[in-house]
């Protein structure tokens, strides 16, 4: 998250407290009476609708808010953003990762490992032009970058502080051109902690760790690995691709890599069949050579069909403006993809210096943003901040099985893997992801025994 709304696939902002005004919210116009096909007898309330962030240009961000299953007034508020660039936190985060339901035909199936078991969850479709978020001025979709995205969320944060009838709390996102938000975030009275899942923290390190991951998992040959690290590495290829200047040498290397890895292997989880993943359309920036491929034919299709139903949109208080259909990832945004090259690991360091705990976690089956790059960047940051290791690298448990591995620095910077998890860890390993989330939320170490 701390890089931008799209570089970081799994982002949570944890606030000190949530003051829910239950009495007034019962009659709030954004309250969802019932989603079509939802299970009966829910123990929590749901809200969704719009917050206008620019009245002149008629810009409105769509949100979906789910109360905690138990004692919501005492539970923290978590803001969740998905990446892309320009992919939906509603469709991906809420309906395929850690929200209370998953679409299955005409019905919604209860997610037994929803994160609203532990917190009040707020899913935001950002920037403008993503999902149900819109502007009536189409120029708002042009030359969108991290700073514009961040500024919009900061405006939303201010409105939440001033006039929200649903949640009386403030929130903001760092790292979009951090200046608008960093001062607010530095206050521990506003912002408690930050969780980053499979994030792009530093362009070259994260992208170039892909070659070793492919090779070590048997996806490419020795000779291709050598070319992929010496003739043209992945960061060079992506940089050339978005400058419309792919060199013959890079084109040759990437063609060979693509042939060997095969389009029938899900790069977001190298152990899964291609039909199972629900997030492959988020590969626009980090897998540019696969933009035209539609590899997901299962969960994502169910989500798209469900959210394009008129009765569902009515129940969500949602509307389509300037587009005919809701899509998982926006096809109307002109996002400045070269923002990808801007390092954000230093922003994470600034937040840690201000006293905000940070967790970086990786699904260990993700070859797109491999754990090896994230782990080395977290270790390097710890050295720069002169943080001592407080929890040596060790396994952690969920139930009676190893949930992954973890290391903690200075009791404020943590790294963890989720064993068997994809890029979208809460989708592929929901129980282990919930344990990781719960432990971090409570400020407790991950279980070292079962």
Automatic annotation (TrEMBL):
It is found in: Secreted. The keyword Coiled coil does not apply. Residues 1-27 form the signal peptide. One of its GO terms (biological process) is proteolysis. Keywords: Carboxypeptidase, Disulfide bond, Glycoprotein, Hydrolase, Protease, Secreted, Signal. InterPro entries: AB_hydrolase_fold, Peptidase_S10, Ser_caboxypep_his_AS. One of its GO terms (molecular function) is serine-type carboxypeptidase activity. Pfam families: Peptidase_S10. GO terms for cellular component: extracellular region; vacuole. It comes from the Eukaryota. Probable carboxypeptidase. Belongs to the peptidase S10 family. This is Serine carboxypeptidase-like 45. It comes from Gossypium australe.
